[in-house]
Write a structure and sequence with these properties.
By secondary structure, the chain is an alpha/beta fold. It contains 14 helices and 22 strands. The chain has helices spanning about 10-20, 35-40, 55-60, 75-90, 125-140, 170-180, 220-225, 245-255, 270-275, 290-295, 310-325, 340-345, 355-365, 445-450; strands at about 1-5, 25-30, 45-50, 70, 95-100, 120-125, 145-150, 155-160, 185-190, 195, 210-215, 235-240, 260-265, 280-285, 305, 330-335, 350, 370-375, 380-390, 410-415, 420, 435-440. A six-stranded parallel sheet has the order 3-2-1-4-5-6, with helices on both faces. The longest helix is centred in the N-terminal third of the chain and has 15 residues, at about 75-90. The relative contact order is 0.10.
């Protein structure tokens, strides 16, 4: 595909890196010569200095022949105009824009982005995407990572195996024998910096981060089997009352009225603003790096501190301080791609990477074939993909044990007639099934081919 990306910041760079690795023809536009220079020197992409909303700059980046434009600059208005220009002047088929301001996204303004007005095919709101990810992590406190697929019927969880994990040193084959009715499949293991798809004779070790695809009704049981039975938080302290923090608090008030929420916000002006917006949440003005403020928030009685500021170091340190002072768990927002590898060693129980969340959302629309959803894992080392099987797919009509699936691919669940199926060797995929697959990065192209319409169909 030929893709033009407007914005060379963390998200733009991450998208360009992923797409370039897959041999797409990528051009990146940014007003910063420094960022464009870095992306040119680091990746196999073209770099153009200028505004992505300017026609001549888009033309220089190859918009005339582009299949897709992805606008992820810091300015909503630049992103929207870039999509408009790409549509009107260059007839770019697919246009994706990141829009932060919630004013644009209010339901009664939904016609704004219609084809006859501002023609944007996909809108990404980082605050909502990240906020929902935080809420999902909080609902399953024993999981390091949680992603929903198949209309919520299938959940992928990342579980860290500690020394008290009951299934340590247990081969996966034996795990299946011990829990034959468990609706879950171990699809990936991250060990010593390497992510791989395990075989049935592989064993779980202390320190492994295990990725499991489970039916919705089997997630808590699965967490318990792996030694995580932490109850859902009833007392929550949020560090940071920005857009994400305010969204999380607002949704907790709406969805979980029994949960007591407190926000620590350093800006007095912002603290006053969110105090007027929120109904039951207690707002404290101060820094979450101040032990006295943490104690004022009753951190010793809190179930979780969720650090959502724009400062990774502050999020990590406040999370560690909170646990030192008696808080049961912490969850941190971490933007820097290199930090998550050290997060657990530093005392962080779970983290959310906004960059990864946004990139996963974009990849869903880049993938070829009948792809419904995509989530990137471990900085792009693997993906969990939900795709619809067509009648012509090589997967349809054969028992799974007879499919010649390459190493690095594991089918985790099948969604059929609004119900999730945990696959066995006898299971057959039917046309129109939605299949949730774990695939290492080098196998993603093969997964796409499995779900594309073959020429024989015509």
């Amino acid at each position: 595909m030929r893709i033009v990306i407007c914005g060379a910041g963390q998200v733009g760079f991450g998208i360009a890196e992923k797409l370039a690795q897959e041999e797409n023809d990528v051009s990146v536009i940014d007003t910063s010569p420094r960022l464009v220079g870095i992306i040119r020197d680091t990746l196999d992409v073209r770099g153009v200095v200028g505004y992505g909303s300017h026609p001549d700059v888009l033309a220089q980046a190859g918009a005339e022949d582009a299949d897709m434009l992805i606008a992820v600059t810091q300015a909503d208005e630049v992103n929207m105009v870039a999509c408009q220009v790409a549509h009107t002047l260059f007839n770019v088929p697919t246009k994706i824009a990141r829009i932060r301001a919630q004013s644009y996204l209010q339901p009664h303004y939904q016609d704004l982005f219609a084809r006859d007005h501002l023609p944007i095919d996909v809108i990404i709101s980082p605050e909502i995407e990240v906020g929902e990810t935080v809420l999902r992590r909080m609902s399953l406190p024993g999981a390091v990572e949680t992603v929903r697929f198949a209309d919520g019927a299938v959940i992928v969880v990342g579980i860290l195996c500690g020394e008290d994990c009951p299934v340590i040193d247990t081969p996966l084959r034996q795990l299946t024998e011990l829990f034959p009715d468990l609706g879950a499949v171990v699809t990936g293991v991250f060990r010593n910096g390497r992510l791989f798809v395990p075989q049935s004779n592989d064993t779980i070790f202390v320190g492994d981060l295990v990725y499991i695809v489970a039916r919705h009704d089997q997630v808590r049981r699965t967490l318990g089997i792996f030694g995580h039975e932490e109850p859902e938080a009833k007392r929550v302290v949020l560090s940071g009352g920005g857009n994400i923090g305010a969204y999380v608090a607002r949704e907790l008030e709406r969805r979980k009225p029994e949960v007591k929420v407190k926000i620590i916000e350093q800006s007095r002006e912002r603290a006053v603003q969110i105090a007027d917006e929120l109904k039951r949440t207690v707002i404290l003005h101060g820094s979450s790096l101040d032990q006295e403020i943490l104690r004022e928030a009753d951190i010793e009685d809190a179930d979780v501190l969720v650090a959502l500021t724009n400062d990774d170091q502050a999020n990590i340190i406040s999370g560690v301080m909170a646990k030192t002072l008696g808080c049961k768990r912490n969850l941190a927002l971490i933007n820097n791609a290199s930090y998550p590898a050290f997060a657990h060693a530093l005392g962080i129980d779970a983290y959310v990477n906004p960059r990864a969340v946004t990139i996963s959302r974009v990849l869903r629309h880049v993938r070829r074939g009948r792809i419904r959803s995509v989530h990137s894992l471990q900085n792009g080392a693997a993906e969990v993909i939900e795709a619809e099987a067509l009648q012509t797919s090589s997967l349809v009509g054969k028992p799974l044990r007879d499919l010649d699936l390459p190493d690095g691919i594991r089918i985790g669940a099948i969604y059929r007639r609004k119900g999730a199926i945990t696959p066995t060797g006898d299971t057959q995929i039917m046309a129109h099934d939605r299949v949730v697959i774990f695939a290492l990065a080098e196998r993603v192209r093969q997964v796409e081919q499995m779900f594309r319409v073959s020429l024989e169909f015509f």
